[in-house]
Structure formats: structure tokens, C-alpha cells
Amino acid sequence: MKNHIMCDGLSLQQAVGEAARCHLCHDAPCSKACPAGTDPATFIRKLRLRNIKGAMRTVKQNNCLAGVCGVVCPTEQLCQKACVAAINDRPIDIGGVQRFLVEHAWDIAFNPIERMEKKSGNVAVIGSGPAGIACAVEIAASGYDVTIFDSMEKPGGVLRYGVPSFRLSSEFLDRELEVLDFLGIKLNSGKTIPEGGAEELLKSGFNAIFFAPGTWKPVDLDIPGISLDNVTNARDFLAKNRTDERDSLIRLVKGKNVAVYGGGSVAMDVATSASKLGASKVYVIYRRSLKEMPASKHDFEMALASNVIFKPMSIVQELIGQNGKLVGLKGCETDWKNPDDRTSDNLVKVDGTDFQLKIDLFVSALGYKPEPLSGNVCTKLEFDQKGLIKVKEDGVSTANPAIFAGGDIVRGPALVVEAVADGKNAGRKIIEYLSGRAK
Ligand SMILES: Cc1cc2nc3c(=O)[nH]c(=O)nc-3n(C[C@H](O)[C@H](O)[C@H](O)COP(=O)(O)OP(=O)(O)OC[C@H]3O[C@@H](n4cnc5c(N)ncnc54)[C@H](O)[C@@H]3O)c2cc1C
Fold first, then answer.
1. Domain 2-107, classified CATH 1.10.1060.10, yes or no
2. Residue 414 Cα, ligand 1 centroid: separation in angstroms?
3. Which residue has the least CA distance to atom 48 on ligand 1?
4. Ligand 1 center from residue 67 Cα (angstroms)
5. Reported CATH class of domain 122-216+370-438
6. According to the model, what pLDDT value does residue 373 have?
7. Which atom of ligand 1 approaches the CA of 238 most closely?
8. pTM for the full model?
9. Tens of pLDDT along 98-147?
């Protein structure tokens, strides 16, 4: 639970205690399990030998968002899943140790990031989510000029406007983003790059572009009543919860019944947030069973601990309104046509299981897809059927040699650490591109 809730991190003693439990495996499966190439085997060994600054360098020089990843990464599916200590005991709390090293560096005012001598080259990064930040830092640390453009007022993408603050606080994120100032990265916030905007940026003097706008359009839900008042989506709900619109959200939720539709981690974030905002009852309605629910175990447990009521094997068929305002929903239970096939396509409605719930707010949390605008920001890009950008084998180069892309706009909704991996990868490719251009 620890690495998923913005509680206090590990103390020095606890972090060293975790390091002391490490088996120091020769082949270090934990290090192979991180998409962003974080090397727990090395930083844990250094911490164990009390080379704390060395451990901090290992962590931060690899991943400028190492603290954030220590907090939000589903480590049980990544590095900690591979941890050999789990065979006879619990895995090493790798996320916790990583977070400790980052916070300890703040406490002792130690900055492990270095900037190389200035070079000629100017890069635009579109999107300040984890992919954009990781790319900008990689390039700026190499000495090039970088400007980040983002539609929102503050940087961070989903980290600031999606992940609830009880999991990742704005203060923690702001501390980690101090690296932008340190490296002289310019931030042009509140600036949406419009149709054809990437080409304009290239014409205006930028030598290369990293495009990382994420996937922010909620998946549509086509049922009667969807346009009633007090029907919203996870993106808007979670963003309001992290902006000055929070008070109006509290008024909408406090003492009311809320239904959340979906079974992913985002649905759990909405449900837990609604409960923390004082909802009377919070339902999570999910079409398959709890076993198939895609939410991480931690996020599910967090919702359970917040008294969220789960209605698995159920679908919503209609939202009921009175004078244009939501007052309830109609749903029914589902079952498998073929019990061995647990995919959504194999679900059928069960006759005679219709139910109604009295609700005041409905939040659809069925996932995200790319904004239609993404397709037009740069020309000469290729898209797949879902609207995601097609990249070459290296994972970030596009059909336009000066434009690179990564994060959710390439992978579809994924993980913070995968966005960081793409940002770093793109950063390196852009540096290669810039040095080739200089010859
Ligand atoms: C609610 C929620 C909770 C999550 N929790 C976790 C978690 O606990 N752990 C985890 O690993 N992953 C989590 N994820 C997934 C993770 O946050 C994403 O995979 C990751 O943020 C993707 O990073 P990105 O940089 O590609 O895009 P984003 O974080 O989406 O950032 C994209 C940025 O681009 C900007 N932008 C878009 N279009 C334009 C434009 N035309 N001009 C200028 N700016 C533009 C947007 O304003 C945004 O700031 C969560 C996702 C959500 C939605």
C-alpha cells in the first residue's frame, strides 16, 4: 500500500533496512523489469554500503521522475514482481527505497543532475506529461535549448490533472519538477499547439519536435440519458478535484450517491476520490467479474477501504432523469455465454436481473483515446485505427524525420514509467538527430 498512498516515505533507517534484505542477485531481475531502465540492484547495493549520494545519482540520473515513479509505479507488476526476496519473504520495497533516495536528496540539498556545456540546437516538446518531461530533461542536460508547450496552466500532464492528490501531492510533483528550472527548460504553459502547429514550430526555428500529448478524450458511452446534468467522465471529475473547481465538485458529491462505470485504476481513483469528498454511497459498476477487473490490486484495495460498493457482472443500460437532472440509473446483470471465455465479447445480459439505483452523479470511466486534434498537429504522421501515432522500430521516430513521438499517444493508455522510457528514448534519438544535423 505504501507506495500508492501519499503517506510519509521511508526513513533512512527503514530504507537501509530494506537494502539489507536484498539478496544482491548476480543477474538482478529487478533491474531488468523496469521499462525505464532503473537499476535497483545498483542503487540498493550502494545504499547498503552507505554510499547514499552514489545511490541518489544512480536513481536520478536515470530517471528525472524517479520520485514520482517511486510513488505511483505499480511496482508489484514490475521490479518488485521480479524480486527474489519474495520467494521466502516479502519483496524489497524498491519503490519506497527509490522515493526515499529522492526525498533524502531534497533534504540534504544534493542535486545529482548535471548539465553539459551549451550546444547549438533548439527543441520543442509538446506536452508536459511524464514523456515530455523526461525527453526535455534528457535533451537539456546534454546542453541543447528546450521549450515545452502545454495546454494546461501547470506542467505534469496526468500526474497533476489526473492522479488524485492523496496518491501524489502537488508539492511532491513541484519538487521533482524543479529540474526544469535548473536545466533552463522554458515552459510555455496554457498554450495549445493548434492544427499544423508542429510545422509552424519547425519553421519558426525549432530543429526538432517531441510530440507527447497523451490520450485525453474519454471513450464514448452511448446510452439514454447520457446528456443529463450531473453526468460526467473520469477525466473531468479528476481534473476538477485538482484545480480551483474542487469546491464545486465537493458540492456535487458531498452527501450524494455516486456511480462510477468501469473497472480500471482510473475508475478506482474516481471512486476513492468521491468517497474522500464525502459521498454518501459510491458504486463501481463493472461488466465482468472482480477477477477480470483491470485495476491494480492496490487501487482496488484502496477503493474497498473507502467503503466503495462493487457491482461486478453488471452493465448500465439507461440514466434516469427528472427535469433534465440525473436521479438514478437502470442496469442489469451479465453472464458468460461460454464460461471458459472471460472476454467482454462473450458477455450476455441476464433476463429478470434488472435493477435500479438512486444516484445523483454518474462518472463514466471507460478509458481514454487520442483527441482528434492530435492527428492534425503535425502533417506527414501516420496513425493507426485507434488514432495512435505509428512509430518506427526504435519506438519514437515518426514518418517526419524532425518529429518524434512517445508516451500514451503512441502506446495508448499505459504507465508513467513507460512514458518516461519513451521520453528518454526520444531524447537520445533527438540528440543523435541534432548532432547529425550539425555535421
Ligand atoms: C487518472 C489516471 C491515473 C493514473 N494513475 C497511474 C498510476 O498510478 N501509475 C502509472 O504508472 N500510470 C498511471 N496512469 C497512466 C499515466 O498517467 C499515463 O500513462 C502517463 O501520464 C502518460 O504520459 P504522457 O506524457 O504520454 O501524457 P500525459 O500525462 O497525458 O500528458 C500529456 C500533456 O500534453 C498536453 N497536451 C495535449 N495536447 C496538446 C496540444 N495540442 N498542445 C499542447 N499541449 C497538449 C496535455 O495538456 C498534457 O499535459 C494514470 C492515468 C490516469 C488518467
1. yes
2. 9
3. 157
4. 17
5. alpha beta
6. 66
7. 1
8. 0.94
9. 999 999 999 999 999 999 999 999 999 999 999 999 999 999 999 999 99
pLDDT of amino acid 375? 64
pLDDT single digits (tens) 287-345: 999 999 999 888 999 999 999 999 999 999 999 999 999 999 999 999 999 988 888 88
Residue-wise pLDDT tens digits, 354-404: 999 999 999 999 998 888 766 677 777 888 998 899 999 999 999 899 999
Using CA atoms in the order 228, 230, 234, 237, what is the torsion angle rounded to 10 degrees? 150
Residue 257 carries which side chain, given as an amino acid letter? Answer: N
For the chain, the maximum distance between any two Cα atoms, rounded to a whole number of angstroms, is: 73
Single-letter code of the amino acid located at 152: M
Query: CA–CA separation, 23 vs 149, rounded Å?
Result: 44
Q: Which tens digit of pLDDT belongs to each residue from 151-160?
A: 999 999 999 9
Which residue's alpha carbon is nearest to atom 20 within ligand 1?
416
Amino acid at 26: H
Q: Where in the chain is the domain with CATH 3.50.50.60?
A: 122-216+370-438, 218-367
Cα–Cα distance measured from residue 94 to residue 18, given in angstroms and rounded to the nearest whole number? 8
Q: Separation of 408 CA from ligand 1 center, angstroms?
A: 7
Q: Per-residue pLDDT for 6 more than 70? A: no
Residue 4 has pLDDT above 50, yes or no: no
Contacts of 313 (CB under 8 A, 6+ apart): 286, 287, 288, 289, 333, 334, 335
> Residue 197 CA: which ligand 1 atom is closest?
41
Nearest protein CA to atom 53 of ligand 1, as residue: 162
Range 255-259 average pLDDT: 98
Which of 223, 232, 231 lies closest to 318 in space, CA to CA?
Answer: 223
Q: Quick one: which atom of ligand 1 is closest to the CA of 368?
A: 53
* Range(s) of the chain covered by CATH 1.10.1060.10: 2-107
Name the 3-class secondary structure at 428: helix
For the domain covering 218-367, report its CATH number. Answer: 3.50.50.60
- pLDDT score at 374: 65
| Pocket of ligand 1, beta carbon within 6 A | 72-73, 126-132, 149-152, 157-158, 162-163, 192-193, 212-214, 238, 265-266, 269, 373, 377, 407-408, 413-417, 419
d(CA 34, CA 184): 28
Give the span between the Cα atoms of 291 and 438, in whole angstroms. 55
CA 130-132-133 angle, 5° bins: 65
CA neighbor of 326 nearest in space, from 263, 272, 253, 381 = 253
161 C-alpha vs ligand 1 centroid, how far in Å? 8
